[in-house]
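User: Please fill in residues for this 300-position structure.
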């Protein structure tokens, strides 16, 4: 992936080393390995990792907090080997998503307000509550920020067997896809609908939302590659491998030994691959209607 040639975003808030509120008091404490499995599983299976962490820490409800001020300057875009290559990579991918979605929105006569991306280590406080790095990257619609602990990329490579720069970029692009859904009003509509239906239908709506974010990630990759020749041989396969690795059925087989389709909240490996590929092949947002009749059954 030719990420070094991409423009670096200045919408980075580096909170690494800033720490966060602890999970002390009378809350349940888990060992590092157990906590890692619980939180990564929660993220991949669609549970709210922030709520889970609050419960582990003894909190009884989500905590609304104001948006934090930037924790420092964005990673350097100076030529040569950066001191922090991981942060430089994230800034490059975020910059690529900004350029792509900015152009797409402009073509529709609209402006694209990009999300902030917060780098953190171990624990962070967002407007959606507390989260720990082990819960994986997430997007908070309340402050319109993407949160990433760079250690997740090690997990993606070593534990989920999805290595490669483009696999990592897919993760960011998926979360930015949720930002696009927020700007378009899709996320709010889904949340309102979920509050009116039973658990099974709410899970199905969550799957459609997640698959659309996968499709939007594919749309980004299509446009970035067409305009700036972003991809190198093997990159697309890395992205598809990452999409498959975080499929609900893949995770359930690994953690439970069996699959419960009605509990899916993100979609099966085949669905995630299919919708990411659909966005990549078409480069058209209109191909990402996961909520239509076709979207309910496609790629199952």
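Assistant: Residues filled in for all 300 positions:
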């Amino acid at each position: 992936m030719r990420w070094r040639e991409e423009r670096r975003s200045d919408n980075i808030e580096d909170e690494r080393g800033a720490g966060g509120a602890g999970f002390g008091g009378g809350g349940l404490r888990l060992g590092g390995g157990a906590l890692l499995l619980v939180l990564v599983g929660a993220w991949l299976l669609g549970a709210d990792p922030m709520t889970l962490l609050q419960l582990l820490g003894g909190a009884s409800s989500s905590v609304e907090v104001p948006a934090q001020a930037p924790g420092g300057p964005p990673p350097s875009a100076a030529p040569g080997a950066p001191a922090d290559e991981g942060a430089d990579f994230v800034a490059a991918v975020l910059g690529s998503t900004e350029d792509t979605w900015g152009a797409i929105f402009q073509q529709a006569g609209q402006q694209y307000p990009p999300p902030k991306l917060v780098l953190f280590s171990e624990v962070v406080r967002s407007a959606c509550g507390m989260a720990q790095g082990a819960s994986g990257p997430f997007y908070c619609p309340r402050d319109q920020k993407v949160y990433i602990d760079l250690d997740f990329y090690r997990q993606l490579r070593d534990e989920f067997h999805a290595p490669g720069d483009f696999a990592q970029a897919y993760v960011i692009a998926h979360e930015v896809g949720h930002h696009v859904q927020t700007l378009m009003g899709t996320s709010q509509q889904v949340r309102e609908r979920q509050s009116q239906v039973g658990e099974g239908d709410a899970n199905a709506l969550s799957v459609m939302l997640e698959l659309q974010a996968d499709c939007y990630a594919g749309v980004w990759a299509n446009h970035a590659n067409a305009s700036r020749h972003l991809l190198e041989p093997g990159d697309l396969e890395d992205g598809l491998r990452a999409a498959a690795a975080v499929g609900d059925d893949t995770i359930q087989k690994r953690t439970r030994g069996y699959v419960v389709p009605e509990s899916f909240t993100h979609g099966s490996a085949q669905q995630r691959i299919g919708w990411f590929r659909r966005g990549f092949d078409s480069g058209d947002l209109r191909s990402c209607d996961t909520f239509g009749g076709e979207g309910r059954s496609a790629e199952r």
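For context: Residues 21-32, 50-82, 294-300 have pLDDT under 50 and may be disordered.
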